[in-house]
Amino acid sequence: MERVDLIIRNAIIIPVSRRIIFKGSIGILGDRIIAVGKDDDIMNRYSAERYIDARGKAALPGFVNTHMHECLMRGFCEDLPLMKWLEEVCFPKDKVFSREDMRAAALLNQLEMIKSGITTFIDIFRFQEEAAKVAMISGLRAVLSSQIIDIPFKIEDISSNENLVKNWNGKAGGRIITWFGVHSPYACTEETLLKVAELAKKYDVGVHIHISETLDEVRLIMRRYGKRPVEYLNEIGFLSDRVHAAHCVHLSKKEMKLLKDMNVSVAYNPTSNMKLASGIAPIPQLLKLGVTVGLGTDSILSNNNLDMFEEMRIGSFLQKLSRKDPSILSCYEMLRMATLEGARCLNLEHEIGSIDVGKKADLILVDLRKPHLHPIFIGDINNIVENLVYSACAADVDTTIVDGKILMENREVKTLNEEEVYEIVQKRSLSLYKRMKTVMRRE
Amino acid sequence: MERVDLIIRNAIIIPVSRRIIFKGSIGILGDRIIAVGKDDDIMNRYSAERYIDARGKAALPGFVNTHMHECLMRGFCEDLPLMKWLEEVCFPKDKVFSREDMRAAALLNQLEMIKSGITTFIDIFRFQEEAAKVAMISGLRAVLSSQIIDIPFKIEDISSNENLVKNWNGKAGGRIITWFGVHSPYACTEETLLKVAELAKKYDVGVHIHISETLDEVRLIMRRYGKRPVEYLNEIGFLSDRVHAAHCVHLSKKEMKLLKDMNVSVAYNPTSNMKLASGIAPIPQLLKLGVTVGLGTDSILSNNNLDMFEEMRIGSFLQKLSRKDPSILSCYEMLRMATLEGARCLNLEHEIGSIDVGKKADLILVDLRKPHLHPIFIGDINNIVENLVYSACAADVDTTIVDGKILMENREVKTLNEEEVYEIVQKRSLSLYKRMKTVMRRE
């Protein structure tokens, strides 16, 4: 009998990479999955320090959130027209947002992600060392990038992003990864974009960016450079397989082809695109061309939660509606997008995104003993993925494991203290609101 | 000190009909709300048999689900083109669906609704006496109607619906209400539609119907009668203030005006309309004309859950996207649609839909102590409704009360046994599947 650290027993295992295993078990040693199979087989070959009884639960790879910003404000000044929202909420916030605010934001967002079954996320925002410090404690796999902005005023700059990469990349046994991050082709100069592309190559890391989120952006870039955003980014030599682009809502056929040819991956953010009235990204067309597409929640300002189940569901339903075809973007495609394809967006497909031997033990258990997840068919006519994608929600996640470490069990978070997080969040958000008011009054 | 049965103390009360009360308490005597106010005031005037401490929770009127069918199958044969789905799933199911299946469906759906904070629902489906019997036990407020179909084959008929009305209307102290229900202008003959309108008048009850869910339906009615569905229904004399119409996705300006003039109310089912690729209902236009609009989940075949929070959120975001205006259908409008306006659709606005003295004690407590509901701002800059509508989910409902009776407390359902319901549902759904297969093979 081989000894392992943890065996998860009798789950309905949805490996994503291959067929569902009913009454399956998973052996974990250190931070890796070392065995996946029928419970009998696993129990004949392995014994463990600890067992988790997962009867009535589904085991899935943890979700990969391929686009988000760890923000502190939620439900704040909602239902405003876009320009009013940007001018009266976002800009004043950006001016007074502090390092301490970022720490509170990271605590709140990482706590929510653990409770939602997100095991890996990419953040593009401010003071990312704070996000890294929180990730050290929370236990989540974090891909962190600054959000470099030049226009209309400088916020994060290249040197702070370079310091982040130098000081943090590969920390926590590789669990913390740092990238470069540029806001967008319209908020950054050509010089910045090219410098960042060069540094990403030098440090061998990725680059995160927003592209063509709104029609206004496309029009602005057309006016400024005489071409569409993806064309412009391609012509200056910014695009490469290091680039992971959020949104990509408004693309010409030529631009879709360029994304494929340059191996740029895309984050699909359906809820945010609906809420901000941005538009509907041409995801079926991108997938047909072979572009790698992951799923993202975007920030709690524009979603307003970090529920990847809802994102899968809405992501599929929005395309069904838009293409007038209820058969498009199946629940299986959506689950793959939220896990393995997300991992591919972050160049982590060899390490995470599916329940396979040799991969990192990043997985979640979802409790199926809920009315909204019944009836449960198992065997040939099973409806497990159907129910998970089309009916489940973040609160159904029971257990969250990253690098073989249990971050949540029976919905109790082990690495962060919920009450302490709420206290910090309440204090900092009220303080941020007061500072915002000062700036708003001065203008 | 006046004696009451129950006082809910120190909640954030969202009455819907008026301003939020922070640190508020609600006094309940029998099935009625007899006091709502600041905790100090209530505690000075009343003492109670029982107190519920609702600190950290919001009290809302229970949700009114204005369109649904209590179905048994979920996550079954998903992602099919519409015709294939109808022919291979829906029609075979309709042929073999039994009274016992309906009982299991009612158990499953009513259990889920209690857990989702839905206190009143309207069902239009089969064997509604079974739904009534389950509602007697579950404690939910139920508006039940048969789904009379003539074309292409007869399913429920007028006499079974009339029996339902005769035998069940007003049962359980008025908690069970029965209506007439006709499937649609395309699945019913003119004779049936008119007979039902006449009977509804005779028994002084409402009529539920689907109108203009898909473009195909509009085309079919145009071919058959040379006019659009609402025009046709108006010209034969079917429309009146008794009629509550689901969907209404494809309407001409003239039809919208007709709905208003005839005082027909509308159920908006955004998730179902997205999933089935039906289209986007012109809700802002209907509201502008003064049409009463409620919110509905539709069935678990087309949603696939009964989560009114998600329905509010998606209902708003879909219109923001469609109208290219993030300020349209605010969270306050959505909450009103899911409660008080829903009550108005069912002619129950004097009894339910808001937390007001004299109304039935149909209300829910939502636990705000969740990461996705933080930060919490209270007082002038509060974000409670914003967070409830744009971030909460069914699982956040902690307590569900109907007619002053606690149906769920701390997420534990008191009136139905969850394990027993699952057992019945598993058995009946497998049996239904086997019967469906027989029919499918024969064809």
Could you walk me through the main structural features you see in this protein, from its secondary elements to its overall organization?
The structure is a homodimer of 443-residue chains. The first copy, chain A, has 2 domains: 2-61 and 354-413, Urease, subunit C, domain 1 (Roll), CATH 2.30.40; 63-345, TIM Barrel, CATH 3.20.20.140. The model of chain A has no long low-confidence stretch (mean pLDDT 96). The first copy, chain A, has helices at residues 39-45, 82-96, 99-116, 128-138, 158-168, 190-203, 215-225, 229-235, 253-261, 270-275, 283-289, 308-322, 331-338, 340-345, 384-390, 418-442, and strands at residues 2-13, 21-29, 32-38, 46-53, 57-61, 63-68, 118-125, 141-146, 176-182, 207-211, 243-247, 265-268, 293-295, 363-367, 397-402, 405-409, 412-413. The first copy, chain A, is built from 16 helices and 17 strands. Chains A and B meet through α3, α10, α12, α15 and α16 of A and α3, α10, α12, α15 and α16 of B.
Q: What is the gist of this entry?
A:
Chain A has helices at 39-45, 82-96, 99-116, 128-138, 158-168, 190-203, 215-225, 229-235, 253-261, 270-275, 283-289, 308-322, 331-338, 340-345, 384-390, 418-442; strands at 2-13, 21-29, 32-38, 46-53, 57-61, 63-68, 118-125, 141-146, 176-182, 207-211, 243-247, 265-268, 293-295, 363-367, 397-402, 405-409, 412-413. By secondary structure, chain A is an alpha/beta fold. Chains A and B meet through helix 3, helix 10, helix 12, helix 15 and helix 16 of A and helix 3, helix 10, helix 12, helix 15 and helix 16 of B.
